[in-house]
């Protein structure tokens, strides 16, 4: 029984480390996207957001079985696109 608990604790620690790494990757990508969007002109930004919003709508409306939470993806993409260039 102790071995089983120890194995479960090790697996839990591994999953936690994987989640931390994934969170760091996502944060880095979000910073990169924010910086890139900040460098765009207003015209480029408008064109970019229009295209992305169209693609998001199409992407989430089709039945992609590999998507676990398409609405959540759409929500986060729109949040990123609320940024405006200087």
From TrEMBL:
- GO CC terms for this protein? cytoplasm
Q: Which Pfam families match?
A: Anti-adapt_IraP
UniProt keyword Cytoplasm present: yes
Where are the annotated coiled coils located? 5-32
Key word Cytoplasm present in the record? Answer: yes
Assigned keywords, A-Z? Coiled coil, Cytoplasm, Stress response
Q: What is the protein's name according to its record?
A: Anti-adapter protein IraP
């Amino acid at each position: 029984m102790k071995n089983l608990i120890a194995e479960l604790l090790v697996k839990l620690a591994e999953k936690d480390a994987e989640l931390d790494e994934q969170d760091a990757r996502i944060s880095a990508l979000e910073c990169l996207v924010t910086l890139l969007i900040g460098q765009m002109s207003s015209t480029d930004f408008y064109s970019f957001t229009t295209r992305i919003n169209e693609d998001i709508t199409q992407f989430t409306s089709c039945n992609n079985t590999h998507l676990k939470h398409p609405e959540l993806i759409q929500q986060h993409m729109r949040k990123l696109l609320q940024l405006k260039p200087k």
